[in-house]
Amino acid sequence: MRIHTDTIAVTAVVCSIIVASTEAWSPAGLFRLDRRQHLIKHPLPTRLQMAPPRQSSAPRSAKVEEIENRESSHSTDIPSEAPSFVHEGELNYAEEELLSSLAAEEGGGKNLKVPQIHLPPRLSNPGVGWEHHHRATTQFVHGHLSRMKANGDPTKYLVSNTDEWKILDEHKEEIDEIHLRDLLQDSERSGAMYAEHDGVYLDFSRQRATLETLDLLEDLAEKQELTQKIKAMMTGEKINFTEKRAVLHTALRADRTEKVYVDGKNVVEEVHEVLDQIKTFTEGVRSGSIRGYTGKRLRNIISVGIGGSYLGPEFLHEVLKTEPEGINSALGYDLRFLANVDPVDVERTCADLDPEETLIVIVSKTFTTAETMLNARTMRQWLWDFMGNDKEVVRKHIVACASTSATEKVKDFGIDTDKYFFRFWDWVGGRYSVCSAAGALPISLLYGFNLFEKFLKGAQSIDKHFATAPFRENIPMIMGMLGVWNHSFLNYKTRTTLPYAEALLKLPSHIQQLDMESNGKTMTKFGVEANYNVGEIDFGEPGTNGQHSFFQLLHMGQPVPCDFIGFCQSQHDLCLDGESFSSHDELMANFFAQPDALANGKTADEVRAEGISEEDIPHRVFKGNRPSMSLLLPKLTAYAAGQLLAIYEHRTAVQGFIWDINSFDQWGVELGKKLAIDVKNHLQEARNSDDHVIEASNPASSRILNYYVDQSRDDHVCRDANNASSLTRVTRKTHADHSRLPPPVQHDLAGKGGRL
Ligand code: F6P
After folding, report:
1. What letters, b where the CB count within 10 A reaches 16 and e where it falls short, cover 6-17?
2. Which candidate, 431, 443, 399, 488, places its Cα nearest to that of 249?
3. Which of 666, 670, 673, 677 to mutate to test the pocket of ligand 1 (most atoms within 8 A of CB)?
4. What is the best residue among 369, 405, 517 to mutate for testing ligand 1's pocket, by most ligand atoms within 8 Å of CB?
5. pLDDT value of residue 27
6. What's the whole-model pTM score?
7. Where in this protein does the record put region Disordered (predicted)?
8. Which positions of the chain have pLDDT values less than 50?
């Protein structure tokens, strides 16, 4: 890049001012003479002091060296000619250093930058005395900077200000002129718009994008240093800058031999220590060598956790339930998830289970989440109701998965932290924790550790692909960049995940938390709000159920980019005698048809050709031009589930990196929790006295809270244990009731003796 001569001139001048000017010894003097105090307090780093020769740590090109040597050799003469070339970076670097120290004084904002300034010829071509130069330049530079400061443009750093972004904005206008139906006929384009890795086939040819769009998205990714940011994440840099934490869910599935350091410690070693602990423990439970307080086998597992401590593990559980190896290894065992604090969820989870055969796994990174901790106390009480209020009951029937920073809380709960505390770390985000003990323990208890290992291997395969594959072949990168394109440029506010596999019924809800808790933000790393769309609304449903639910809208309502996920082989295919299609082919026929229907639509002429009456035609036209992408994998196994998980984790990260937001914190969940505590205090006061009137933060809240208390006063459970079981207050019926009441012998369904 060629820099303007006058720009260079100003750089040299700035430097020489530092050296030569007597009074204003420092650039501070350039700004406000009283800054001198500042520099006395915070002397400029040597590299900014132009004492001949300057030793600076800033990387310096040969050119800069040459200029400075010339300057230092001529320190006393007036520079007669403008230096020939200066590296932009160096200048900014110096400015950066200088201004950040000044900015600190100026209230911390970083928007006090000295840009490259173009000097009018009268200044750039010195001919007159040095003094004149100094004064004129000082005023000029200072004037320019304070103007900048006055009407500073905080959005300047936003990605939307980059040329790459602006070019994409312009390109969008061209794309708006083209219909997907036509783009799809371009075989060269379609031939370039798919990618494959380790059995995963991604077809993104039904995106409203051309090959040029991909080039421009690649430019944007480069501009945003996407590859460097991915590397920073995977090598343990503390990229979660608001919590000052590394983001290392990839380390949870790294090979034992790999090394990733956080604060000087190789975290992979610790990861495998815990995986070994889980393997030993789950094999002990499954072999019966580890038993309950009364000596019974522990064959019921209740995993108590919410959010990331539940959605990921449940997604995987639903996959393995019908996975051939999973079916066999789960026989005789039962895994249930208790997430909601709704007492009905408690009863639905455990009423028919024998507590003596039940192991409670408390999954909570912080061990502070209100719902999880109340449910955990409830489960503890349930155990005590049946086996007596003995510490050993807790030590034998309750284990925990939590972050090391919660160790004391786990101990205080009465759990045997030497043997039954399965730790993970603060560098694992809750919604990224399914590969940690949070998923490994409940899943391995039901399906055996081997199957969980296959899940980790699938995720690892995508991690390696993500870290190494070039842009056009990199599946999570392409999906992420097209996500940015669809949301920030084509303005699609929502996105839907449509797995054509019933066993993936919990994937959309896992992606909802993964994506919306990660990118549901507007604040960028610059402390400036994004002036572009960030964070889609995700929803989804398995195919073909969704087709009979919200597909009307997808085809004729507001367009929603779709992800179709399908498998070449079913976990369990069926082909009834006399049927020409297997059930899986029936399913997959829709998987292939829907993306084309969305893309091509149906024109008025095509409708008319079907003999539809003129007045009905408008209601039958499909606009089409609705983007989707299709992921096709060989079969839904534990390995494939790991691949899918990592693909979506990395897609979310890519979008956050491009949008310059922190995808790894979730401060937005705190306010609601805080207000819930206030409400609980109001309720407690109201419940403890008959005439207490709640005064909440606003009249509407006061009214509805007092209404709730009044309406629930009579049968409030804390007042009297209405129709609870005699054995426990936690459930109305118990396993004893369930086991005692034989099922009714026969129902005479319309005289057919119960047979359909
Ligand atoms: O409230 C949101 C959240 O913090 C999620 O990020 C997290 O997955 C969930 O709650 C549960 O948190 P924990 O695992 O600490 O109980």
Report:
1. bbbbbbbbbbbb
2. 431
3. 666
4. 369
5. 46
6. 0.80
7. 46-84, 728-756
8. 1-5, 21-36, 38-61, 63-64, 67-68, 70-95, 98, 102-119, 125-128, 755-756
CA atoms in the 13 A half-sphere facing the CB of 652: 25
Q: At what angle are helices 130-150 and 5-20 packed, to 10 degrees?
A: 110
Q: Would you state the structure tokens that stand for residue 683, as one six-digit string? A: 């309720």
**3-class DSSP state for residue 76?**
coil
Residue type, 75: S
Ligand 1 centroid vs 539 CA: distance in angstroms? 20
Establish whether 156 is a catalytic residue. Answer: no
Structural element, H or E, at residue 541: none
CA 659 to chain centre: 13
Is 171 among the catalytic positions? no
**CA–CA separation, 81 vs 656, rounded Å?**
47
Q: Output the six-digit token pair for 130.
A: 């040095």
**CA-CA-CA-CA torsion sign (130, 136, 137, 138):** positive
Alpha carbon of 513 to ligand 1 centroid (Å): 10
pLDDT confidence of residue 71? 47
DSSP string, 509-520: HHHHHHHHHHH-
Q: Which two tokens stand for residue 588?
A: 């997959």
Report the SS3 class of residue 633: strand
Say what the pLDDT of residue 252 is.
98
User: Before 235, cis peptide (omega within 30)?
Assistant: no
Tell how far the Cα of 498 is from the centroid of ligand 1, in angstroms. 25
Segment 44-51 long-range contacts (CB within 8 Å, at least 24 positions apart): 44/18, 44/97, 44/98, 44/101, 45/97, 47/94, 47/97, 48/18, 48/94, 48/97, 48/98, 49/18, 49/19, 50/15, 50/16, 50/18, 50/19, 50/75, 51/19
Neighbours of 572 (CB within 10 A): 12
Could you identify the atom of ligand 1 that is nearest to the CA of residue 366? 15
| Residue closest to 658 by CA, chosen among 168, 225, 172, 170 | 225
Helix (H, G, I), strand (E, B) or coil at 153: coil
- The alpha-carbon radius of gyration of the chain (Å, integer) is 32
Nearest one of 356, 396, 336, 412 to 728, comparing CA atoms: 356
- pLDDT computed for residue 212 by the predictor: 98
Q: Which residue, chain included where needed, has tokens 């039954």? A: 420
Instruction: Check residue 54 and give its pLDDT.
Output: 43
* Angstrom distance (rounded) from CA 63 to CA 51: 18
Q: Which of 340, 644, 627, 617 is nearest to 494 (CA)?
A: 627
Count of CB atoms within 10 A of residue 178's CB?
14
CA atoms within 13 A on the CB side of 734: 16
Dist. CA 231 → ligand 1 center (Å): 26
Question: Ligand 1: which residues within 6 Å by Cβ?
Answer: 306-309, 364-366, 369, 372, 430-431, 517, 666, 669
CB-CB contact of 18 with 48 (8 Å): yes
For ligand 1, atom 9, the nearest C-alpha belongs to 307
Tell me what pLDDT residue 731 has. Answer: 85
- CB count in 10 Å sphere of residue 41: 9
Q: In Å, what is the CA distance from 372 to each residue of 304, 357, 361, 364?
A: 6, 21, 11, 7
CA-nearest residue for atom 6, ligand 1, is 430
Whether residue 419 contacts residue 604, with contact meaning beta carbons closer than 8 Å, is answered with no
* The one catalytic residue among 41, 244, 391, 548: 548
3-state helix, strand, coil in the chain (%, to 5): 55, 10, 40
